[in-house]
Amino acid sequence: MFFSLKSRLIAFIVVLFVLCFGTLSFLLFKESRTVIRSYIESSALEKMEEYGSYVDMVQIQIYDVASLVFNSDTAKNWDNAISDPNLPEGETMLVNLGMSRFLTQATNSYTSISDVSIYRRNGLRIGSENQVTTDPLFLQESWYKSFFISGNHWLSAHTDQHENIRDHGNPVISLLMPIGTFHYATAQNVMKINVNESYFLEPLNRIHLAESSTIFLLGEQGSPILSQQANQLGAEALAEIDQIRNNSLKSGVVYLNNDEGQRDILVYKKLGRTGWMLAGLAPEKELYSSLHKLQSTILVVTIVLILVSLFAAAWLSYGVTKPLTRLVLAMRQVQRGAFDQAESLLPPDKNVKSEVSYVISTFRYMISRLRQHIQNEFELKLLRQQAEYKALLMQINPHFMFNTLELVSSLAMQRRTDDTVRVIEDLGKMMRFSMNTSDDRVQLAEELAYIRHYISILQTRFGHKLDITLTQEGRLNSLVIIKFILQPLIENAVKYSFQHQTAAEVHIRISRRNNHLHFNISDNGPGIPAEIIQKIHDPVETSQLEPLLRSQSWHIGLGNVVARCRLHYGSLFNIQIENGEHNGTSIELILPAQEEYDVQRIDRR
């Protein structure tokens, strides 16, 4: 009985399925474990890097406020006046109120700062919102004593009893700085800058390694900065963190054995500005729980498939040749990519009553899954390109903001009120336009309005030294383009036109010719080096986003625009760059003329 073809086929199929699916299950579990581990580690470190940049930004604002108050003439004059024992009481109160108003202005200048106060050794406290009190109780506060003893500048999350107007009694993180001297031991005044804990805690709570994991923000001594309990990490993790703080590595992943004999994953990231550190602990088994479920599912599927194969082998002699022939034809269609034709060639399952039915059913399922995988791969590629496009888009805003804020500061110092108001109005309208990142395409009219505001700011800044014109040709009202493709080019043209001369000429011409939209920006600058022009024309060079996003070179604005246009329009985009015989550069962008009802596509290659 065993030597019959039917029995041997059944035995062979059973052994084959057990070996194949068993090996597949083992390899899939092993490789998936490696991939998931690598993804978890890189993803956690990437999220910590983003949060570290956010913490650096908040700390910069805190240090800016401290520097503003420490170096201000108002603080120096107040310190000199309040130190005069012969100053009348009324004038003393006026001086204190003036200092309070200055602190209010400093606080309102930064969104992350909740309050700024000055504590004097004689029991005087001056805060924002006209807070002037004499209450020596704060002299007994532990943070106050610790500052003069050890110079501890940072205070972890705490509720400040003396400053509850702005933070409403919520926990705050504080920076302590001396006033009038650099040494904390000899200081008569201590400046305390409060930041609401939520500025640090809310974005931190959005970082998760696993469902039961927590990311801790630790100070220089290893204690939590926020309202978190360090003992949740466990003794093993705390001991490892102490060793990590003393080594030179900035970030990494460590695997530890917990008290239950299982492994935990410790992910850490050091923040360089203040010596703070991010540390997160997650059970390894929780990270791989979905993988274990997949392994069980594979086992169940394997058993089911073995049962189906046994049933199929029992009907070996029925209808083998015809279904296999149609199956071969369907496979050839799959090789050509014609999935619909392949499915139409397969015989219906109900007409196939042999072991071939399993092969056909599995092949049909494979076609469906293959089509789904191709669609998923396309969608992933589309999302990846959209993310790259957003990264390039957000690269422009900070550079422009810094230049414009410097201009506003200069105009204010020159008391040019009308020009200051006009620049602020133009900047406000531009920022309202630029802050809308929900769509990467806008009407051409909106982009041109944005450019006119930008030109107005440039003309205010350079005056008669800048000759800049904007001309339009053709029917442009109904066209749409991607955002921010003109401003970086105009900025480069103005900047390098002033590089070796006192006057700049920049001419912008926008025209529609047949089905193409032409943007031409010409200047009287020194011209673009030939090697840079070659790189700009090379699609491979401008598609390398990592070096482009980190680049600080002079052609970053042009490279940014070209990269975004190639990401969005693909082969429909073209650029022409020409240098004059003696000086000057002409850059022409050629885009497809798309109406408002056109379907948006990121990848058209």
Automatic annotation (TrEMBL):
Domain of life: Bacteria
Domain HAMP: 318-375
Listed EC numbers: 2.7.13.3
Name under which the protein is recorded: histidine kinase
Cellular localisation: Cell membrane
Nucleotide-binding recorded as keyword: yes
Major site of localization recorded for this protein: membrane
Annotated Histidine kinase domain residues: 485-595
UniProt keyword annotations, A-Z: ATP-binding, Cell membrane, Kinase, Membrane, Nucleotide-binding, Phosphoprotein, Transferase, Transmembrane, Transmembrane helix, Two-component regulatory system
Organism of origin: Paenibacillus pabuli
Cross-referenced Pfam families: HATPase_c, His_kinase
Catalyzed reactions per annotation: ATP + protein L-histidine = ADP + protein N-phospho-L-histidine
Listed GO MF terms: kinase activity
Transmembrane segments: 6-29, 298-318
Keyword Transcription regulation among UniProt keywords: no
Protein topology in the membrane: Multi-pass membrane protein
